[in-house]
Amino acid sequence: MTIQLTDETIGLLLQETKVLPEDFPSRIKLRSKRGHKEYEQDVTGSDGNKFLLKFRQNEKNALDFSVILLFLPKESTKHFRLRRYNGKSHEHTNKIEGNTFYGFHIHMATERYQQLGLDEDAYAEKTDRYADFNSAIECLLKDCGFTLSTKNQSLIQWGM
Does residue 154 lie within any of the structural domains? Predict the structure, then answer.
């Protein structure tokens, strides 16, 4: 079953408060998986929506990574990529706009790309807001409604 969300719904999901577990920073332990390292964390938003954080990094190239926020709709077993913060390891082309660039970039789910049958997050914008894997995680957490539990707020600010 294909999931299609409007830009308004996507915006509401991104703004929804998502509280990270108290021990979140210490949980981030990347595990080897076919040439890359990976970590996943389930998160429930304040409105009851389910999300998944997924971090992937190539074992040989530190600039080849993805930091991803997925939405897990109740009515589906399929994930919906809301945001994907990619490293500086490949060229990206926006199919509708026709522009191509190389560098750090953020993929964003959009209604118009879905309507053309393209991946929900096929649109991306080049960014200088992060320069490595850890700062990409901080950027996603800041952009997408995340907060640390009250116990951890004094330990790590994640750029907020």
Answer: no
pLDDT in tens, the chain (160 residues): 578 999 999 999 999 999 888 777 777 888 888 888 999 999 999 999 999 999 999 999 999 999 999 999 998 889 999 999 999 999 999 999 999 999 999 999 999 999 999 999 999 999 999 999 999 999 999 999 998 776 554 444 443 3
DSSP 62-89: TT-EEEEEEEE-TT-SS-EEEEEEE-SS
Residue 160 included in any domain: no
> How many domains does the chain fold into?
1
Coil, strand or helix at 139:
helix
Q: Is 158 a domain residue?
A: no
Within-domain flag for 88 = yes
